[in-house]
Amino acid sequence: MGGLQKKKFERGSATNYITRNKARKKLQLSLPDFRRLCILKGIYPHEPKHKKKVNKGSTAPRTFYLVKDIRFLLHEPIVGKFRDYKVFVRKLKKAYAKTEYSDVERLKDNKPTYKLDHIIKERYPTFIDALRDIDDALCMCFLFSTFARTGKCHVQTIQLCRRLTVEWMNYVIASRSLKKVFLSIKGIYYQAEVMGQLITWLVPYQFSHDHPTDVDYRVMATFTELYTTLLGFVNFRLYHSLNLVYPPKVSFFVQKLSALSTSLARVFSSVEDEEAQLDQFPVEGEDMENMEAREKEQKQQETQTKLFEGLKFFLNREVPRESLAFIIRCFGGQVSWDKSVCIGSTYDATDETITHQIVDRPNIDKQYISRYYIQPQWVFDCVNAKILLPVEDYFMGVTLPPHLSPFVEEKEGDYVPPEKLKVMALQQGKKPEQEEEDEDEEDEEGEDEEEEDDNDDDEEDEEEEAEEKSLKKMEEQRSQGKSLQVKVTPGKVKVENPARLEQEQKAEEKRLAIMMMKKKEKYLYDKIMFGKKRKIREANKLAAKRKAYDDAEKAKKKKARK
Amino acid sequence: MAACSSNSNMRREEQTEEKKKAREKSAKKRSKEEGDEGDEGEEIFSFKDKAAVDEEEDDDLSDSEDSVYSGLEDSGSDSDDEDDDDKDDNEEEEEEEDGSGNEDEEEDLKTETQQTGQTEQKKTTTMKKKKEGKEVTEEEKVNEYEHDSSDEEDIRNTVGNIPMEWYKDFPHIGYNLDGKKIYKPIRNKDELDEFLDKMENPEYWKTIHDKQTGRDIVLSDEQVDLVNRLQRGQFGDVNFNEYEPTVEFFTSDVMIHPVTNRPADKRSFIPSLIEKEKVSKMVHAIKMGWIKPRRVEDDSKGRYYDLWTGEDSSLVAKHKMHLPAPKIPLPSHQESYNPPPEYLFTDEERALWDQQDPSDRKLPFVPRKFSSLRQVPAFPRFIHERFERCLDLYLCPRQRKMRVNVNPEDLIPKLPKPKDLQPFPTTQSLVYRGHTGLIRSISVSPSGQWLASGSDDGSVRIWEVCSSRCMKTVQVGGAVKSISWNPNPAVCLLAVAVESVVLILSPSLGDKQVISATERLLSGQQEAETTEGEGPVSWIETEGEELNQGIHLKIQHAKAVQQVAWHAKGDYLASVMPDHSSHLQVLIHQLSRRRSQNPFRKNKGLVQCVSFHPIRPYFFVATQRCIRIYNLVKQEMTKKLQANSKWISSMDVHSSGDHVICGSYDCRLGWFDLDLSTKPYKMLRHHKKAVRGVAYHRSYPLFASASDDGSVIICHGTVYNDLLQNPLIVPVKVLKGHEITHDLGVLDVTFHPTQPWVFSSGADATVRLFT
């Protein structure tokens, strides 16, 4: 009876996963080659749901790949190239050892190379897929483009990265798609909206890198290999979507293009800038509202892209030229710098039509009345606020207002820094000058008000006290008259607040209902409530910190005034 | 060349033997080469010269031979090649040597006629060398010294290059060539002589003191001239013209006739076989793919095209297990170079951050504030972070995690409002004070008028419920473990468990009729008592003081009694004496016949409490882990309820007899539906600490549980008559009032028989009434 005995681990999830070593053996690759292959093909380990089952009863920590993934790797032509390369290295070694230099030359000429085009196409079947995944590629390319020729990677790679990133920046300028910027302690974050996808990338500050020893540059180089290919194809497509020539002319490419001061050549010279108008559809009710909201949003976006139009900037030599030029040009401003700093300056510091000069030093000798001398943060804050902020806060040598992250979207109950509230008020159309004055006044008024409040409280207290006193007196008079032996304390009338009572009742009901929860649900509920409470606690902590800081500042000011 | 030869001279003595061999060898070679070259017929050198050449060559060869023996080079064929090379070199050297030798001879200022003779002699001796051995070498030595002197200043003193101070104390200064002493000049010049000489002698400026001979030499005009020329960096010879026109070795004119008339070799017309072989090898290798022809450099890298021209959706279908990598979280205000002040760390936060393990930190960096952009430094961990991201992308196992997105309010079960479930006790209305020890047990009379409480202070007090007045106090002389009012409303009796005695106490309260009925009940049995001789217990009638207090009977047990429980009719009384080892744990007494019996033959575990079924002849026994139900008529166990708790503390049976609740020391309260299952229908974990007492209300659908956390929780438990509908349990009120003393809170709880009131007794020596 009963047929064959079922063997364990021969069906189900145990057969769907394969350990890394087994996968490597199946592919007949060394570990570095396997790693490269995984990076290039985008194969990553999976965490199985039941690890013990997959691990055939053992609980040893192992990484698992999907068997299907590994089978998919088996037919990859690049694997063959890896093997070719191994043979090539062997031959080259042999030729060197035999000092057959002509052979060495010949072998070197025939060094096997591979292309990643098909992998890009395979991993990103549509262009939108590629755009969605381009964040990491941009970060990596921007990092590599800042490397010096230190031998950490090939010089060609660095140059290619530099070229691709400059092309990308020029595309962003041409399409005016930059949305947000943020000066962090790590570097400068940029966010652009390209074809409906939000793309964020991080550019380190311009310093030479202190190359760490515990970083495997081979891994990074492999990633960069893939990313440069991806970015190149994406750039090509993006340039063509704007009718721009790709690649941009090589002759002036290296210097002038990287200066970000010239606009790109178009395929058709007479292309009008057509602003895509939203078509009007006959709609009703809610759709109508949505439509209006959308229209409004679009209008806002348009105004944002023309934020710096008509303004003429001049960058002093101490400010980060590339990022500022990039941002200003993204929003339609004109920008120039000193001739000796970099190629591509279009006008001189003596130009009278300059409206803003960006400086990052405490003072400057020769000042023009016709222009504002502002610190670089103004540009970044304006972009994030989508309006031109009052320049007074950003004058040369002035203590800057805090720089806030534009990526934080506060939900209900979260802590909102007061600076953000101020900016929001500005956005809604309050006049900045008034605001300023108000603020100054507020400081004074605030103090006065507080004092007043205190007075009010005192008065109230006094009133109460007076009442009580009079009552007591009356009682004393009465009691003296009667001379009672038993001490009678005045009964207190219990004021029943119906609203509060109801609230209490509800709270009790809830408490009782919570008692009846099932164990599992109660655990979950407790967890959620814990998280909520923690959030509230953190917000309160921040608010308290801020208040303490403000108080300290105020006290300082008062002292200074005295 | 001279240095080279002197070198060879130095070595010569040591290596004479070797040299001989070498010379022979070289001579043979030479002769052979000469023979070869003889064909060419280029006789450039005279015989005389050749001899000199021979000698030079010897030296050279000896050098190379030396290296041969030192083992630096090997393989005869190689040396052959080298020999060939050497030969060529030698020919060049010969030419140079020729010229320079002549010049040497001309230039030597101190040439003696004798010397030329000697050189000639030397040449002849070298011819003889092959025939003669040592003799020749000795001769050669002498000659060598003389010959060698040509380059240096003439050697008249043979002491060599030594500090002349060594001869300071001797009369002589060295030895001449003949071995005779050279004496110092008789009178040395002192400083004064020197000065005088300088001032007076017109030749002084070109006088040189020769230290070796101790003589002064006056330079001639030519010699002075020579010194001047050398100092100016000119050639020593006046007649040497350094700007002579070059004489071309080959003429630039193309001649119509060949230089030699020799006919071309045959091999220059025939294709070379060796070359052919080499080429064919290469061709074969190319054919077989061993050698690849030079690849055309395609600039494929960095050449881009529109990759996504025909986007087909068929490819889009990736396998469904694909999990795209999560994006890097966007930065918050803390990461700003100039954050608002509240986001900066305080000192404590900073210290905490420093202490924490990097993996535990909430923020991977310390927020910092810079007053201007130019002060912002490079982020030291930038490359690290990028690298970690790379590692995450290809190494980190991915798993799809379903995020529970649930509104916490939805998790709370929807229960009927407590308001709709009234009546139930809500407020504390009376407190019965008087006891001094903790009150372990309370019981309400069936009429609901009286409340009896037994305390550790050794007294039983009987209170009037409505007025909270203590009607009676009975000192029983020991801690009261349990107290129970007889449920028969016709009599007024109390059973009290004190140590190992169960007291039957008649408080004689209330109606006269009731009191007399009680008296009758207690006195009427006296005759029957005699029939019972021995048993597990003894019934003792009380007298005197105790009787005055109301204690009528004493049932003396063997062990301490923990609990007493009446049957609903009020005639039977069960007492519990917990003991691990004995089967004598539960006794049932019949009051009317003053008889006791032990219903169990076997020990089934430590009995915690017992209870009678309110209607049927069933008996509930709760041990530590489970509750057993016995049929008293059939005398068998009908059910065993698993309590799912560690240690049962108390138990109560619903008035319908179909439901049981039991409290346990591990904070649980279990509701059993006897028709449904032997497992609890519901486990309630409302209390934070051990549950001490549980009670059902007789008529209202209420039950209460008392716990060590000082609270009494009233629950509404509707029991439907419809068997298909499960009871609905809703907690309706948490009553608090008792103070926790010695980690004990509420010890007993009981309901009023008719009103929705609940009594609770606590360790704080009070009984409280909640209405």
UniProtKB/TrEMBL annotation, chain A:
Q: Keywords on this record? A: Coiled coil, Nucleus, Ribosome biogenesis, rRNA processing
Q: Give the source's domain of life in one word.
A: Eukaryota
Spans annotated as Disordered: 425-505, 543-562
The molecular function terms in GO held by this entry are: ribonucleoprotein complex binding; RNA binding
Q: Note one Pfam family from the annotation.
A: BRCT_2
The chain's coiled-coil residues are none
Residue stretches of biased makeup (Basic and acidic residues): 468-479, 493-505
Q: Boundaries of each BRCT domain copy?
A: 303-396
Q: Indicate yes or no for the key word Metal-binding.
A: no
Which biological process terms from the Gene Ontology are attached to this UniProt entry?
maturation of 5.8S rRNA from tricistronic rRNA transcript (SSU-rRNA, 5.8S rRNA, LSU-rRNA); maturation of LSU-rRNA from tricistronic rRNA transcript (SSU-rRNA, 5.8S rRNA, LSU-rRNA)
Q: Where is the composition biased (Acidic residues)?
A: 434-467
Q: Where does the record say this protein resides?
A: Nucleus, Nucleolus; Nucleus, Nucleoplasm
Q: Which SUPFAM superfamilies match?
A: BRCT domain (SSF52113)
PROSITE patterns documented for this protein = BRCT
Name where it mostly resides. Answer: nucleus
What does the similarity note say?
Belongs to the pescadillo family.
* Record function comment: Component of the PeBoW complex, which is required for maturation of 28S and 5.8S ribosomal RNAs and formation of the 60S ribosome.
- What is the annotated quaternary arrangement, including any partners? Component of the PeBoW complex, composed of BOP1, PES1 and WDR12. Within the PeBoW complex BOP1 interacts directly with PES1 and WDR12. The PeBoW complex also associates with the 66S pre-ribosome. Component of the PeBoW complex, composed of BOP1, PES1 and WDR12. The complex is held together by BOP1, which interacts with PES1 via its N-terminal domain and with WDR12 via a high-affinity interaction between the seven-bladed beta-propeller domains of the 2 proteins. The PeBoW complex associates with the 66S pre-ribosome. The PeBoW complex also associates with DDX27, PES1 interacts directly with DDX27. Interacts with IRS1 and UBTF. May interact with MAP1B.
Name the record gives this protein = Pescadillo homolog
